[in-house]
Amino acid sequence: MDTTARLRPVLRAALAFASFALAPFAPLAAAPALAADPIKIGSVVSATGPSAFLGDPEAKTLKLYVEELNKKGGLLGRPVELVLYDDGGDANKARTFATRLVEDDKVVAMVGGTSTGATMAMIPVFEEAGIPFVSLAGGIEIIEPVRAFVFKTPHTDKTACQKIFEDMKARGITKIGMISGTDGFGKSMRNQCLKVVGGYNITVLADETYGATDSDMTPQLNKIKNTAGVEAVLNPGFGQGPAIVTRNYAQLGLKLPLYQSHGVASKSFIELAGPAAEGVRLPAPAILVGDKLAAEDPQKAVVAGYKASYEKATGQSVSTFGGYGFDGIQLVTQAIDKAKSAEPKKIRDALEATKSYVGVTGVYSFSPTDHLGLGTDSFRMLEIRGGDWTLDAATR
Q1: Which domains does the chain have, with CATH numbers?
Q2: How far apart (Å, rounded) are the C-alpha atoms in residues 45 and 111?
Q3: Mean pLDDT across the chain, nearest whole number?
């Protein structure tokens, strides 16, 4: 069977999904008034603070989706109420809000957790309450080991490491330096990269770290610069740290290839790093290069629809982080619809049974042993050129 024939069923599914999933963002006719008790879906994101460029598009996406969903009639004949809190990037606040969502707000599901640290702080609350939690953070420890009620939409840091090392190996790079953030995501990705790097015959010659509030990483980068044999540098991290690393990298005149993680897959990173971002390589979801995807790509229609709707509503460029929120809320609302119930356990079961969901981040298929449902093939390897993303031909 040729490639086109193999893709037809998935492409048909993607187009069918696009017509269903993207409709809530389009202009809608008036729907009947909803008088029943609302179905409450909770969310805690970092809409302000150092991680605002991640959490703000998540919050905007969730609000947009729920507002338009209610214009169509809600779910199960009931309105959907989004109970949204801003943790400001503080994991302790996130846990406090999680408790409030369970005990006071009585939510039936949760979509949120901008950072790995905030997510890990909230997991015990939702697990104990038996409420499904779809995280928007990257750390692999969120879903490994598998927890009954916890899922997530972003690729794991382990998958990002594997994608990066595949690219390095293909380019003949065998010796690298690492500089990692000490936040929850940075720590986790560093550890995952160190675990899998040997399988690609790549050696880490220098291993530096920086704090979440550090404003100058020149000393650490100088150590890497002065380490003989380093052929490329990898920066596991998210937030403002990687932009500072990238600027310092250019200031030191380092000409080695610089790899960032999917934690910076946002136009905001390019803006923060400025001209220094030129040539940076990173793995990212298709949403950043939707216009460059092949016509037969099953994600093309979904990505294009979300991008157009979000940018029209907000006046801002689309980001992978808003996309994580879009996939998260879609997965939860489809699970409620499929279960024909707003009972948390039934929502959880329907989530776990999800197969071939074509989202903006990838095509998800969950199972009892996999609460992410994505592999390295759902990543695209990008390079920043001329202040924008370019896509490797091999990942189209």
Answers
A1: 3-155+295-365 (3.40.50.2300), 157-284+379-395 (3.40.50.2300)
A2: 9
A3: 90
